Amino acid sequence: MDKSEKARYELEERVSLFKDALRHRNEAMCEMNIYSNYKFDMYQRYVSTEIEYMRESLASAARIMSEQSEALAEAHLMVEGSTMRIMELGRRNELAEDGARHIIQESEMAWQRCKADGSDDVKNALNKLRDILTKKKLEAEESQEKDGAEEDQQQEMEKSKHPSGKQGESMYSTPLT
Question: Is residue 173 part of a domain?
Fold first, then answer.
């Protein structure tokens, strides 16, 4: 073999080696591309799953917050309504007591005047009036006691409806004022 053929043969072998190296490099790059695409798809699925889970968790938390807000608003209205009812009953009680005191004073004064006049018919009428007023006063006191008992019973029912058993207090926060 002469020198040029030898050089040509060496060049062909180098070209063959370079072609093999390029083919091997291309195969490795294809495998790396397939592997990276597989990993990227897996990561995308993982991210999508996590986002969906977070979206569901957020919706659930928003639903729970909405329910708790509604329950808190309802409890606030019940407390406010009960307070207004108690204040109204107190005003009615004061008016009833003032009216009863006034009627009793007037009847006492009339009794004293009749006593001084000495008329038996008037005395009998005043005695009946006194009995009626005494009976009305007792009925009013019994009615107030009954209203108080009904109010206590209503408060007990409201307490039993509330999850913590305490009216006006959330099981997640500090008591309402």
Answer: no
